[in-house]
Amino acid sequence: MTDVRPSHRARIPRDREHDYTDEMAHKRQAFVAEQTGAGLDHVGRYSIDPAVLPGNVENFTGVAQVPLGLAGPLTLRGEHARGDFFVPMATTEGTLVASYNRGMRVIGECGGARTTVVDDHMQRAPAFMLDDALAAREFGRWVDEHIDGIRAAAEATTRSGKLTYIGQHQIGPLRYLRVNYTTGDAAGQNMTGKATLAACEWIRENHPDHPRYVLSGAIDTDKKHSQINMLMTRGKRVVAEVTIPDEVLRRLTGVSTRQLFEYRQVGMAGAFMSGAAYNGAHAANGLTAMFIATGQDAANVAESHSGVTYTQLLENGDYYWSTTLTSLIVATYGGGTGLPTQRECLEVLGCYGADKVHKFAEICAGVVLAGDISLTSAILAGDWVTSHDALGRNR
Question: Where is the segment annotated Disordered (predicted)?
Fold first, then answer.
């Protein structure tokens, strides 16, 4: 038998007591140079104090600087977002900011987009394992009868989280509980995880069978697109809508509203055939750029970009266009939102801090609508490729 011994594993420098300092960042930069030969001249230049980073990153070594562009004004007439907004967008994709800027101009000349948050839930979805299907069904009834005790246990772990309802789904002897919360101005994944753990422990202790469970049975689909989230909401369900006069669209994009409506039929058939998570042009582009700029968890774009567009060609030739984002996960407090550059970008939008998350969600939806108007028009006008040639090439 061959004696296999582990090879030497280089260890990244770390100080258990004082790791978030310039000194430790410089040691890690030197470590990278020694191990890989790569210099970190740009990564190592930053204006933030490493002391503010605990809870946001480990082994801090420097920063990844992403170019930031400004689009706008985006005119909104929402429940929470009202007025003109200049939108910070962090991206390395040429034409993106210019395209969204054009869509925002169209919206502005139509008097602004209407926006509203129509639902708000964040979930954790444990699965309880019973002896058989009948026991699992009866367990579900017990949960409904003891919702007050479950809610009290969950809400004892958080100041801002509120348990709204528990959805239930059964497969064989498994009972899945989709526990729904409102989470204030935080995105809430960690908050709901902690609260649901407390709720599950209360259930296990108080139910006569003391059933086993796993904290996530995967139907909360954290950072993964899913049909259940599109139907039942994860994060904010937010709508942006605008009515575009034919004259405005022709003047600004060279496309008529009838052309938009004809193309709509082609695009809807294609989205249906491919099983797309979004039947508009490109929700992920604008959301990703905004998420990076404002300190959102960028991985949440996997869920947040899903949605449904709905349109009508009106009798007078105007075009009604709405975008519904079904699973928009955003925050204006906590996570990366309080870091210096991210906070500045939220402050540009008037969206940093308490009681601002619905306003920010409405702005996100308005941005997606603007991007869809611009890109769809560019495809129809034949300047999609030429615009990328003009603005998107740096080689």
Answer: 1-21
Q: Do 240 and 131 have their domain in common?
A: no
Q: Same domain, yes or no, for 144 and 287? A: no
d(CA 100, CA 88): 11
pLDDT of 274-326, one tens digit each? Answer: 999 999 999 999 999 999 999 999 999 999 999 999 999 999 999 999 999 99
How many residues are present in the chain?
395
Catalytic residue among 93, 109, 155, 383: 93
Q: For 328, which DSSP code?
A: E
| pLDDT of 394 strictly over 90 | no
- Of 79, 155, 297, 344, catalytic: 297
- pTM for this prediction: 0.94
Residue 102 exposed, middle or buried by CB count within 10 Å (0-12, 13-18, 19+): buried
Cα separation values, 367 from 88, 94, 306, 328, 339, Å = 11, 17, 14, 13, 23
Say how far apart CA 339 and CA 343 lie, in whole Å.
Answer: 6
Q: Is there a single domain that holds both residue 157 and residue 290?
A: no
Q: What CATH number is given to the structural domain containing 185?
A: 3.30.70.420
Task: Identify the CA nearest to 307 among candidates 330, 276, 263.
Answer: 276
Instruction: Please indicate whether residue 93 is annotated as part of the active site.
Output: yes
Give the count of domains, the chain: 3
Q: Quick one: 339 and 296 in the same domain?
A: yes
Judge if 267 and 318 occupy the same domain: yes
- Annotation marks residue 355 as catalytic: no
Asked whether the CA dihedral 325, 330, 332, 337 is positive or negative, the reply is negative
Is 297 one of the annotated active-site residues of the chain? yes
Say yes or no: 276 and 200 in one domain.
Answer: no
The DSSP secondary structure of 194-244, one letter per residue, reads: HHHHHHHHHHHHHSTT--EEES--STT-TTS--HHHHHH-SEEEEEEEEEE
Which sign does the torsion angle of CA 32, 36, 39, 40 carry?
negative
Cα 341 to Cα 349: distance, rounded to the nearest angstrom: 13
With respect to residue 8, please indicate whether it lies within any of the assigned structural domains. no
User: Does residue 273 lie in a domain region?
Assistant: yes
- Do 53 and 99 fall into the same domain? no
Confidence band for 9, pLDDT divided at 50, 70 and 90: confident
